[in-house]
Amino acid sequence: MVSEHARTRDGRELHLERHGAGSPVVVFESGAGASRNMWGTVVPAVSGRTTAVVYDRSGLGRSPADPEPRTLARLAGDLRDVLDHLGDGPFVLVGHDWGGPIVRTVAAADPGRITGLLLVDQDDEGSDHYFMPGARRRMRLAALTDPAAARLGLLRFSTGRLAAKLPEPAATAFREEDGTLESTRVQWAELAGMVDDLRRLRDDPPKLPDVPVTIVSGRRSGGLGGGGRASLNTAHRARAEALPRGRHIVAEKSGYLVPFTEPGLLVREILRILDVTR
């Protein structure tokens, strides 16, 4: 493993780790407020076949904070800077949760370097539940209560349970770097404009390149509620079916934390995409 820094176009540094060797390069984009450590079980298996890269967005893990608003456009711009640092590609992009719209935005803007996508229980503008008044109320409440819970150390319990599913050194790094007050603040800074960004995606959908695209949905509600989960999975399935090389998979044992609960499923699908693209 090699640790290094990618420099953004405005001079910030993003911490990244490069594992293994080979092409295409698989680049992982974490969910909202999550560091590179969440991929700790997936990366070792993938890096046995090719180069796997994980990185920390600004303010998360080992990357310094960004004073600017953490809009989808800014997050996608940072990922493009990471890809520029890594070279010409080709790249397979893997995005979890809010990382899904980030990698889709980049794939649409820079299609020549992208050879495959894996979207893991991504936030999807095709699901109406994001735009319901109840969802907005829940988000506003969580934006207040989550930092309070982090300040009191309550999030450390859930962080510890998730860390127990990871191998070392990712487990220790996850305990130290995730579920903190700062990471929680960054999470909600990233999600502050989520609904507006999703509405923009709905109005002007990013056109993905003609590459293999797999969308993985969790079966369990994972805090979405039954209606929210059904709406999201329907949107995932419809998106996959609309793509020329789309594929939809349901993670039967998972909510939205598929990288922790069914990492083997993700590894198998990444390796399948690598085989197809090669």
Automatic annotation (TrEMBL):
Keywords: Hydrolase
Chain intervals for the UniProt region annotation (Disordered): 210-231
Compositionally biased intervals (Gly residues): 220-229
Superkingdom, natural source: Bacteria
Keyword Protein biosynthesis: no
GO molecular function term, any single one: hydrolase activity
Low complexity bias locations: 210-219
Family annotation (InterPro entries): AB_hydrolase_1 (IPR000073), AB_hydrolase_fold (IPR029058), AB_hydrolase_sf (IPR050266)
Identification of the protein by name: Alpha/beta fold hydrolase
Organism listed in the record: Actinomadura sediminis
